[in-house]
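Design review, sub-item: ligand-bound model
Attendees: FS, YL, KQ
YL presented the inputs for the nicotinamide-adenine-dinucleotide complex:
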Amino acid sequence: MRALVTGVAGFIGSHVADGLLRQGWDVMGIDDLSGGTMVNVPKDAKFINRDVGLDLDDLMAEFQPKVVYHLAAYAAEGLSHHIPVFNYQNNIVATANVLASAYRHGAKHFVFTSSIAAYGHPRKSNSDAGGPQRERLTEDDVCSPCDPYGIAKLACEHHIQAFFDYYGGPTYTIIRPHNVFGPKQNVSDPYRNVVGIFIRQAISGQPMTIFGDGQQTRSFSYIDSVAQCIAASGWTEAAKNQTFNVGGDEPMSVIELAKRVCETVGVDENIQHLAPRQEVLHAHADHKKAHQLFPEIHRSPVSIQAGLKATVQHVTENEIPTPTHCPSAIEIKDKLPPLWRDGA
Ligand SMILES: NC(=O)c1ccc[n+]([C@@H]2O[C@H](COP(=O)([O-])OP(=O)(O)OC[C@H]3O[C@@H](n4cnc5c(N)ncnc54)[C@H](O)[C@@H]3O)[C@@H](O)[C@H]2O)c1
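KQ shared the predicted structure:
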């Protein structure tokens, strides 16, 4: 079976490609290396360096993928307020381009990584005081995204569904991961992924920067089962034309995460609180649907602590990549957190 993976040099895309190769699939990966690195690309995948917003017809015609996994995106959610035009081109326009080209060349199935950001602020009962042990976001909840990144992901979901309704194919699977971390993640992107940022800061002896008091909570998700669910969506009949959450079930505050990272790296706590930024306070997803669709994969997810250990080990055994920069100029500088003003 032939699969095309966009974003193959990135964190999740490289793990998905690994999973497909383990299944014996032929994999072509596309990435423009704006955020990913060649070190991540599995050696048995055919690699093409290209922006997925550009014409892909030559590649699709040559490779004729049966399944397209579309993961390429610049996923800096907080920064997306400040780069809205770039965000919509990179997410919505590029997704429409990949899907149209896939369809023209006979792809049968399209797997798309959306995000928990598509939900936006959780329902009121969810965001009130009471800590993280509250209702979790389910796939039936009304989506009301509150930043350009979430808006783009939801627009992509609607586009993929409407495309199927109109053309009768490709079938699709839409996955909404959240706060994924693990080996091969980019720890040098100053704008995103708090686990990676904390690990880099701890290892390099810098203070760990937290927006606000750090009481905001997330369920940080170790990469293993996330990538396996995404890969398996290409051959799991029950996942066709489905949208589902995937990720961890263990709520943790950001301040607690910072402490755990310090412990794991073996450094003293050195935390610097910054002015709070506008963000969802508590975001947790329900995974009943993913458990039903992929019971084998979800049986024993890796704990945050064990995941941190594996991630820190990977980072320390490998060269820390040079910091990646936002691939766009900042479009709106108002309200830009000072930390991000000089390219962080
Ligand atoms: N990491 C998470 O916690 C998380 C959560 C929810 C959703 N997602 C989604 O999963 C996908 C993968 O995220 P990730 O964490 O692996 O990010 P990542 O930055 O590690 O990987 C994304 C890859 O896409 C590439 N890319 C970006 N724009 C491109 C373009 N126009 N053309 C070609 N390549 C391009 C980058 O170079 C990078 O290698 C994204 O769509 C992201 O929105 C991630």
